[in-house]
Protein 1
Amino acid sequence: MSENWAICIGINRYDNLRPLEYAQQDAQAISEFFSHAAHFKQVYHLAEDAPPLTSDFGSPLQSRPTFGNLMRFLRVRFDERFLRPSDNLWFFFAGHGRREKDQDYLLPIDADPGNVEETAISVRHVTERLKRSGASNVILLLDACRNEGARSGEGLGLDRQQGAVTICSCSPSEFSYEIAELRHGAFTYELLEGLGMEGQQNCATVEKLDNYLKFAVPDLCRKYGKPRQTPSTFVEPLSKRHFILLPALATPDDLEPLKLEALEAEANDNLAEAEQLWWRVNAVAPTDAQAREGIRRITLKGKLDRSDDDARAAVPHSPLTQREELAPVNISRRLLLYGAGAAGAVAAVGVGAFLIDTRMKQRPLLTRGETIPVTTVDEKGELLDTSWESVETFAQTVDKDNAIEFSVIPALRSFTMGSPEDEMLRVSKFERQIDVSVSRIAISRTTITQRIWRAVLDAHPQQIGMALSPTPSSFPGDERPVETITWRQATEFCARLSRLTDRVIRLPSEAEWERACRAGTITAFHFGPTLTPELANYCGTGGAVCGSSFGRDVARPDYAEVTYPQGSYAKGPTGTFYGSTKPVRSFPPNRFGLFEMHGNVWEHCLDNWSEALTALPRDGSPFVDRSSTVRVLRGGSFSHNPALCRSAYRDWMEETLTGWEGRVGFRVACVI
């Protein structure tokens, strides 16, 4: 079983800076949680009134967090290795922080604000010392976004620490706030809440904790009348997003991403990484048969690599064979549901074969980390913030000149679909909220462009279920989306792309689409409470559809409860009407790195249409109605009112209908 060690530092009273209210109390609460609730092996607590540090590593050290005491502690305690690679080392700091000459600094009690470089401690130095412990998992929890007078200084986080998990209390351009009613900082309060959650809702992994904090902290600040505060997480390498923070709270499902990464590492002959991943699984679940077999297999492979070719031929199973044997059974069931069960008229369309064929040997998926700017606006559409977010991406090659970029959307145990009752211009009949879970999935970062459409058809000209036109577009342009696409044409494209790439590629379910669109937000748009012409391509001149007074080209009684007299949404500005699609990536992405989720073209989903969200499966899979050929559309288009481009807005179309020339396209999902 892996061990957890921690360092907790909290400073209220500074020698040369104005005092804080609850930083020291935050550190005390975190220290007590680590010691008593999480049963950490050792917790070092440094604060003004903390007892002397235990002398388990040499002569006693002072716990008052001065520059000299902190530097000596980091030097003496971490002079030699004392932890195993599978152990976790946590570092929590609550106090003032500064950014100086492109470096983040933590300010000790006696820091001189006029001489930060010589009297403060850089986060980089802290990370370097902590790594000397021997633990491969270093977690930095930095609530140091506090300037003079309050916990409201400019955030840290631009100085990214390699080889560590860094969670900051707010984004680099935001502030961090204390809540007097709770006697805690907003970040620490929700951090304690998240770490204490058990069962399927736990925050046992980095990914789960990050998802929870990005939702809970802004929501708490809003509840207590504070400006937006969004914690930011940087993970390097990106695979650490799946790393288990609290083994005692982890469920079997939490181990699955680690197992899949271990198998992928084996398939790529990266035995050192694979072995470390299997040992992480073993540390959490010592009796796990897959982990034991993986370790045995790697040990055997290592011995064979040092022997001659004849001995190498004695390996009973190759890594790929083992990967197939150990693949979770529920994957096959899920693909069956997403394939034949959701395809409706599969025989006519011919899309069932590639989805049902779960024996497809998918090649190892190599992802990379990318940092992107994310734009947020206020209720008037004015720029509120541009934060930097880390996203996990990969490029799927189509041919030597073309590739589709995907973003990996983290799994989420509880995700709310639909719109709240007070959201303006909502269609209540279709948008009543439900909670669903969504599995990890990859979504193409843009809708399919005309260039990618042609590349796929050129590389796989043989039809699977139907013929496809090479030019399904009203607005020509290589980087513009295809936009005269029926649902059946989209699924035929997915079938060919799957055959071409040896991956399971399909349309996203409606739940996956909204999860990808929202990217952790709860506002009407992922940008915030309104939309502007600088953020999306929509009809901003009034009416629902280029001046019409109804929700679509043809009046529908279901939509009569909502009228669209203005081209603006909420308190946002009146927009413009561009009159056609724009090239993909013309507007800022959301927090998952996805472009044009609002407007430009409608997007097909895999589901059959259901008026009520309550009919949808709660596991994120598509709604299936075998008697229906009506499919779901999401996202709005260039010709539609911004209210019809909201994250929660739902529409539909017959799966063979092509009457919306120039308005309907799609993006694809890749099962991972």
Protein 2
Amino acid sequence: MDSSNVIVVGAGPVGCTSALLLADRGIPVTLIERHPQPHPLPRAVHLDDEVARTLHRVGVSDAFLAASRPASGLRLLDARHRVMAEFSRATEATDNGFPGANMFHQPDLEALLFERVDRHPLVDLHSGVKVHAIDGAHGPLTAPPVRVHTRRVADEAARTFTGSLVLGCDGANSTIRGLVGVHMQDLRFTERWLVVDIRAATPLDSWDGVEQVCDPARAATFMHVTGDWYRWEFQLRDGEDETDLISALGPLLQPWTGQPDLAGLEVIRSAVYTFRARLATRFQVGRVFLLGDAAHLTPPFIGQGLAAGLRDADNLAWKIASVRSGRATPDLLTTYQAERRPHARAMIRKAKLVGWAMTGGQDRAAAVRKLLLSAAVRSARIRELVASTVTPPLRTGALRHPPRLSHPPRTLRVGALIPNPLLCLANGKQVRLDDVLDGSPAMVTARPPEADLLALCRRHGITPVRITAEAATSADAAWVDAGLVPGRTTRLQALADDPSLTVLVRPDRVIAAVATQSQPPRPPWIVF
């Protein structure tokens, strides 16, 4: 691959995260943003514990946790605001190392990311610049650099940027997607909702999770975001004019505010948004990749819109770095679409299903919904599944699935994220697994690694890690020795209990392979 920089178009959370993940691996990045200043109003308000690990890798998780708050889960209310079902989430750290549901103010997150971008010597940010053409996108990686033609918004001054790859992180109306001829597939979901953001002079007496009003006449969502910031969303009927609804906000909010007017409430924003389910027909065209809303649009009912874009960034960045370093062939880049597109489709499907169950407005839908909710309330397993933030494992791509007769622990499934438990090092320091691995691929086992396994790790830049159920005592320089912290539940216990297992972990913390001592896993992406 050409040694020039990577061009990232769009400096929202997905674009900034992509730029930082690449730059932290030593890859220069040109970051282009059409708007001169960051958007001042929030869009996304929720991130789960899985993608919080990505924020940790780009160095903003501590500040993010300080500015966000954990939520207690989801309540479904009937038209009279009586609780029909509650799906609780623990507010303490999960096995991923972060609270399961994190409510946040998007401008706060963007400020944290921009601060890191501004300080990073390998990220060159150009704001107030719009892209209008691309040349060379369809060429092979060995071809001359891609040329991205831009104009400055303020005065139309032209400039051309060159790079080895282009990442289109420029949102739902992506210019990059249009320039490479990719279309969005309609997944048959379109709804208009009125979104209202309000700051309250005094705290509202409300539950600290998300409330979904399952009213066939007017579905609604309420959530306390952070501090004095609250959000409501109201479904609009077909052909309904939102003007009347906006003019009657006081009575509309009264079930939560306890008053018929807006006294003590500052309306920050009231706007109609169209929630859609869309999926790009391709995530890659030659040397151009689509990420975030440029590649997929997810209805908001499971809070996975922004999270999906951050998963895109994490999935692609390490692959670009591996190819550039010569540790992988260019074929590795094709696994981005193979892995992320089916996963994005699965999350869109789940969001549509949850949205239908919560907000279906027809009599038949409402009746079926009541039956489903009745079953959910009675079934602890269904309640756990609804509340869980675990996303489906990857099915294909840079993975090596075990033979059919092999049965590794279900808690260590190939394609899923490896847990991120608290570990105790030989020096007594307690750290999370992600900090031990520090963004590199890893070979994790409970036994002292054999000489051939260590040689494989040295040859391909893989970190060997030994994790046991007891406190770490070895300070062997050949591998990292760590013990599970006693008294804490973790899915990694299955590895510590079976020293024959060896788990290969990718830089994005996805389990790439699970094998036994007699057959150590061979990384499916490296050049031998």
